[in-house]
Design brief:
about 190 residues, mainly alpha, 8 helices
Amino acid sequence: MRCPSLARPGRPGIPWHELFAADAAARRGVMQRMYADGLVLSERDGAASCIKRRAEDALREGPGALAPATVESRRYALTDALDDLADATDVVERLAVAGVVLNTAADLLFDHHRAWTGGGKWLPRRLLQADPQRGGALLDGYCRLCENGESEDLADAAAEILILAGGPLREGYARTWHAAAEPQPG
């Protein structure tokens, strides 16, 4: 079903399907959530209700799977960060590495469940929605590290998520790097 446009003459705006596509590519679902949860104040040709249903459908469907190469890269990054966390003796370094562990493990857990991601205050909310047990353990471990410097619970929770994603990657893993831009003749 095709939804009518919400654009008004002289004020075209960005089409809703482009907003949804950008958020789906970022795996965030922010615009979908706004349209799904928003209150329709004015209805013209059924456009707002149609787009609201599309947003609800998109949220239920969730984001697509990460590319296998992306999952491998995140597995490697989490493996490395867990090694760094185990070796970190400086408080500030440990906190910095803990942030990497939290975010990378969260990305892998979101992908495992095909769940929408979040940043800032939405990261813990989305983690608990995606997987209350594992997401909760990851957040509790992160809090304990921040409160008293103990990294074991965070490392254990992240290691469990790493196993879900295929396990640690160390020896033998190689990334293929592509240049962001070709050098310009000078």
